Amino acid sequence: MADFLLKVEDLEVHFRSSSSVVKAVNGVSFTLNKKETLGIVGESGSGKSVTATALLRLIPSPPGKIAGGKMLFEGKDLLSLSEKEMRSVRGNEISMIFQDPMTSLNPVFTVGDQIMESIRTHRKMSKKEAKKAAIDMLKLVGIPESEKRIDMYPHEFSGGMRQRVMIAIALACNPKLLIADEPTTALDVTVQAQILDLMRHLQNTIDTSIIMITHDLGVVWEMCDKVIVMYAGNTVESGSVKAIFDNPLHPYTWGLLDSQITSDIANEEKLSAIPGTPPDLRQEIKGCHFADRCPYAQDICFSARPNLIEVEEGHFTSCHFQTKESQLTRKEKAYHG
Fold first, then answer.
1. Is 9 within the bounds of a domain?
2. How many CB atoms within 10 Å of residue 171?
3. Which of 48, 54, 92, 162 is least crowded, fewest Cβ atoms below 10 Å from its Cβ?
């Protein structure tokens, strides 16, 4: 679409050790439009956070390296920018909320100093102007008594309030893209709901696009317009939220949906789980990365890597069994006995 904000094409991120290369992200592609929310889901180690870190070009080198692909942000390839040009993008045009605010915030500086640093770096304000802007940001994210709390340290805030401070820092320069890496992890459900409501409100207020990285499909359903399902560094399925939830096409997506805790889980004998473990990415994998865990894998699944194919409009899956008939037959059986 002509109004896309971000377009990622065949992104490859590798980590090299003395004896092997780990392909942590293996040809991931997606498009994010303006004011849209994209969810990236998958279990730990699937490549979600590495993808987000690559967008900011913060992959530690060595051992990491962005080995291929394009990342077009408003038409300009982020991989072609100099480090100086990228510093003007980070925190200004693209911001990130990290998973653990206690380790992301500097314990020896007040929260005000940390918000003001971002503002003064990119908006060229005086210290007085930056402090006023920081107080306004704390008010915007719902922190009461902002004039007083701006001089407090991170340890003086609760977990939910620290996450709000992280959001204030990320949004201080009105970024066009906000990357949220597990923003509600370790928060109780009440605080989680408040943080998600806050992000929706701020998205409507400053017209930002959001990439939501999470393992919680409930958050995806509530927040996102479309979804990428990642497994072992690969995209196994992508489409609108409605398509992914109403008509999942990949066996791994079925497993993720079946393994979610629901309100009637107490009536079940046990929580469904995907059998097996993810593959060792230090080893060369010829076929589908999910084949060893898929209950309906065929010989071709172990010998040839499936392409990401559009099965229905806007709905892609990476599986050798692409027809609706074969998908429905397998879906009726997979993970249900």
1. no
2. 23
3. 92
